[in-house]
Amino acid sequence: MTSSSISQLTAPLIELNVVRVNGGRPLIEADPCGWDSRFTLNPTALFLKRSETNDRLIAGLLSEHSLNDPLLKDGVVAIFYRGVPIDNNDSCRFRSSVGCAVFTPDFRLLRRFARPVLSPSDDMDGYDFDGVEDQRITRIGDKFYLTYCGFVENSLRKVQICMAESDDLVNWNKLGPVEGDLNRYPNKNAALLGRQIDGRYFMFHRPSWGRQSDFGVSLAISDSPTGVWKDCGSMMCAVRHPRYAESWIGMGSAPIEIENGVFLANYHTGNFYRDGARDYFASFAILDFRDFDPRRPDLVVESRFDAVLFPETRHEVESPWPHSNHLNCIFPCGSYEYRDYIYVIYGGADAYVLAAKVSKQELIERSLEIRRSGLRHAWAIPL
Predict the structure, then answer these.
(1) Model confidence over 293-338: pLDDT tens digits?
(2) Residue 91 neighbours by CB distance under 10 Å
(3) Which end of the chain is more exposed for a tag (fewer CB within 10 A), N or C?
(4) What is d(CA 360, CA 362) in angstroms, rounded to the nearest whole number?
(5) Which three-class secondary structure state does DSSP give residue 143?
(6) Which H or E run contains 317?
(7) In terms of Cα–Cα distance, which of 181, 223, 220 is closest to 202?
(8) Distance (Å, rounded) from C-alpha 316 to C-alpha 256?
């Protein structure tokens, strides 16, 4: 990036050390003999540290493993990913379901479920008949919530926020489209905050109306994790860069609390080049809910750190998906904290499940640098 480009963006350039785990190779990819034989993408994730409560969950996820297995001493990571089979009926060639795979914290595979844990409805008029997509998981107490995009390919092309809940991470009960005013327009990329603050629950979402460059993260509130949800309006939009013709953002995974009422969130930025090619990169934001004003949801955004993870490797830039235009893609839907690192679980090239990690301390220190700049925003790598 040239100095003139930085000046146009009025944002500093701050470096951050991001490490791709597993040598940048996929943690999960299509199984030619499985239900997910075409693509595996857009994963959400949950770290289960060993405890009396979590041991019950781990035993249910790993029915053939003993809890005394040394591999389980630090807990497990459950990854819930979007899977697409090769062969479907002609009306929905890319019909998605949600699968589950369980790993050690250092990503040794322990179990990959042979069947999806959440599948589209068999009802052709159902709210998710053509796909259960882009799921995010949030734990609130002893209950787990999966927010997802219910997709219906018909004359209206419905895309709406739906929800499922579970007590054990294996058996999921669909709750249907969320109640409230969030599905008055096409909507997706929803994630729940992991706890109540001042009597409110919070949902991040990405309404899709107007120009694509208007698509951004909005914030909704409710007195229950399952709604009824009231939209408060836009929380943040894309920071434009002169190399792109158009940019937009959507929420990543459920934010991680780093101090009381202050959260670390990730999100994706999608970009169109002038020739029609696309890329998606992952970014971080610090969100402060301690003085939340429902009339000004944008004020929760304390600082933003864009392009922390940019598509570079083979499994991020070589997409086998039949896109009409070239696609480089990092699409984060999962994150957790483990041993002083923030792990980001993401979809690469719309076809693979990948992971990266960054030092929590370094990420917070760099975010403080952004705040000290007085601009609230920085780029992590030259663009």
Answers:
(1) 999 999 999 999 999 999 999 999 998 888 777 789 999 999 999 9
(2) 11
(3) N
(4) 6
(5) strand
(6) helix 314-317
(7) 220
(8) 25
- Quote the tokens at residue 215: 């698509």
DSSP-derived 3-state class of residue 51: coil
Alpha-carbon distances of 42 from 78, 79, 103, rounded to whole Å: 14, 10, 17
Q: pTM, whole model, 2 decimals?
A: 0.95
Cα–Cα distance measured from residue 280 to residue 247, given in angstroms and rounded to the nearest whole number: 9
Domain with 231 in it: 3-379
d(CA 217, CA 282) in angstroms, rounded, equals 14
Rounded Cα gap, residues 138 and 155, in angstroms? 33
Domain CATH for 42: 2.115.10.20
Count structural domains, the chain: 1
DSSP states of 185-250: S-EEEEEE-SS-BTTBEEEEEEE--S-GGG--EEEEEESSTT--BEEEEEEE-PPP-TT-SEEEEE
Residue type, 381: I
Element (H, E) at 111: strand 109-112
186: tokens are 């096409």
Nearest to 85 by CA among 46, 120, 45: 120
Question: pLDDT value at position 88?
Answer: 52
Measured torsion, CA atoms of residues 353, 35, 124, 250, in degrees rounded to the nearest 10: 0
Alpha-carbon distance of 46 to 78, in angstroms, equals 5
CA-atom Rg of the chain in angstroms: 20
CA–CA distance, 107 with 81 (Å, rounded to integer): 15
